[in-house]
Amino acid sequence: MRVDTVFHNARVRTGGAAGVTDALAVLDGRIVALGQDCADLSARQRIDLGGSTVTPGFHDAHNHLSWYGMSLDEVPLNDCRSTQEVYAAIARRAAGQPAGSWVIGSGYDQTKLAGGHPTRTGLDRAAPDHHVWLKHTSGHMCVVNSLVLGKLDLATVPEGGDLGRDEHGDPTGLLREQAQLLLRPLVYPTPLDVVERSIDRATRQYLAEGITSVQEAGVGGGWIGRTPLEIAAYQRARAAGKLHVRTTLMVISDALHELDRHPTDQVSLGLDLGLHSGFGDDHLRIGPVKIFADGSLVGRTAAMHEPFAGDPDNRGYFQLPEADLRELIDRLHAAGWQIATHAIGDRAIAEVLDAYAAALHRTPRPDHRHRIEHCAIAGPAEIARIAELGVIPVPQGRFLSELGDGMASALGDHRIDWCYRQRSFLDAGIPLPGSSDRPVVNGNPLLGMADMVRRHTATGVPFGPESERLTPEQALRAYTWGSAYAAFREHRVGTLTPGKLADFAVLSADPVTEGFDAAQVRATALDGTLAHNPEGF
Known about the structure:
By secondary structure, this protein is of the alpha/beta class. It has 15 helices and 25 strands. The strands form five sheets. The chain has a seven-stranded parallel sheet. Strands 3-2-7-23-24-25 form a six-stranded mixed sheet, with no helix packed on it. Helix 2 (83-95) packs parallel to helix 3 (120-126), helix 6 (192-208) crosses helix 7 (230-239) and helix 11 packs across helix 13 (445-454).
């Protein structure tokens, strides 16, 4: 047998039954042999990996690819520690732009800022002649200045959102959740060439971090999509060689519409031609439909059973009425969609599980793999129901280090033990994906895996019980097989097994035995070709 490439002299963590071996062989973009079986193969080339560690390519189960790519052109606010620093950063950018243009900042977190949320009056002083739009790191809120606020129809705040107001009842410029849609007439849609460029920039960075496949968590509409033509932007990027990782697209539920159909057909809501989850190929395909049930913890808009700490009148809220949420899930399930519902608060999670159970009872479907994105506050009863229904929770380990102090403040000590659980899901037999929600936090998967093992906040405080910590092996499996399972891709990627696609990461150290801090990505193979190769293998 003649193969394309044999990669040898490596520590290959296959993630499968072969365990750890020393070589792999690739033919036509697929793995055909491992270990000793590679020794006698005829190969067009043999690449000596110099003792490096090889793992399955990393897979991010929930990220915002185009949002991240676009944020690279915006004013970075992640490191600001006071509102004055935010205003100064905006003033510096405004000084180099024409009056009337947009100054967009991203990544601020009011829980880390002296002064709390920036305000329109502060932004007015920083950039009085510019349109200013600051995006919160969570994506669940933003702040605009008076020039922008004056162009919004504040009398039509959508249900599932609200405006920040000061002690006099005047708008502060803060728009939370669905209220961000008020900006839509001013900033939407984004031109396709801008989205295409953001895809190129983002996925080049992903390859450099060992990411070979991702799930884009919401395209086509709402406050999270960039354009109703967003799938076309991904198709264009792929055709131009600018989509550098395998991508599964979650279509935002707002982009779906009523379909003309035969009265006996259950496909009543969807995309034109009845397209739904699974359409596409190994490089680009349509995945789940994305629904927003509630908000965020740091924004105190997640739907909770009990009030937020120090805020006795606030239990958060749903982004659409519960009855509408149940009906939407039922119709999408009947139409054949995999469903990924954003639910963070325990009240939202319980409601989503009820809706999934009712939909499955009405229209049984094996291996549906419906998901709960984030699934932040889950008690024993919710975990048992998740396991029973075959639902996949998609938490983010990196949240604990970057957002953990703010989440702990919102929850109070008595609820932290149920927040962003990991080991409890595995112990209940539930597959656990790895994901980042980038650009909400740093999306480097090695950082995410390290946080799944450590579970510390930015101030070094342990977050929740030690029993929720993962082993290094479990964290690596989450970011490989676990995430591929959540995307119906584990039969193609997720382990290094003969017959699967040859997607793997080459690391400078073994993350399992030497730690995730020691392991740096040296190269990434996609289809068996080293796509990121700074060290010249």
